[in-house]
Write a structure and sequence with these properties.
By secondary structure, this protein is α+β, with helices and mostly antiparallel strands. The protein has one helix and nine strands. The radius of gyration is 22 Å and the shape is elongated. The chain binds FE2/S2 (inorganic) cluster.
Length: 181
């Protein structure tokens, strides 16, 4: 029927225009994201330089809708014995390279998502407690220097570790690749 053909053609044209609109918006918005997040590549990877961090300091970067913390904990971070829920990270989320007691590529730097594994609040640094330098303000879950949750916390799992690669002595690149254990 001619009426139906016209209707279908109009729908097809509308879809094509919508598709071009969405694609164009993506291309147009990329430079704005680039300004907001210097180091963000088109493929979604983010370069993070942390050379300015001294021992005990951390910095937060926004990446793909989440916040990632780079914490220069120093080499002696694990000197405090504490009771942990998941000491070997068997029940926690991290890339394969971080499934160990350090949970990182480098002993002295720990990189993790900022959300508490209980209900997602942003964790905070509490350097006055070397046994548990990371804590959640919502329900007081505490984590050691590798984001491993202490036995008495309400959070059930260690803090999540993103996939990243070392790029130079003091920088990494966050990548989407999920190599979770
Ligand atoms: S959200 Fe962190 S302890 Fe509840």
């Amino acid at each position: 029927m001619p009426g139906n053909k016209t209707f279908n053609r109009r729908r097809l044209l509308t879809r094509i225009v919508q598709l071009f609109g969405v694609t164009g918006l993506g291309f147009l918005s990329y430079p704005f994201f680039k300004v907001l997040m210097p180091g963000l590549s088109e493929d979604g990877t983010l370069a993070v330089d942390y050379s300015e961090l001294k021992i005990g300091q951390w910095k937060t970067v926004s990446w793909l809708g989440r916040r990632v913390i780079v914490y220069r904990r120093g080499l002696r971070w694990s000197s405090q014995p504490v009771s942990l829920k998941d000491p070997l990270s068997d029940r926690s989320i991290q890339p394969q390279f971080a499934k160990n007691t350090n949970r990182s590529h480098r002993d002295d730097v720990f990189i993790f998502f900022s959300n508490c594994t209980h209900l997602g609040c942003e964790v905070a640094l509490q350097p006055e407690d070397p046994a548990a330098p990371i804590a959640c303000p919502c329900h007081q879950s505490r984590f050691d220097g590798a984001g491993r949750v202490l036995e008495d916390a309400v959070a059930a799992a260690n803090l999540e570790v993103p996939f990243y690669r070392p790029v130079s002595a003091n920088s990494i690149r966050l990548e989407r690749q999920s190599e979770s254990s």
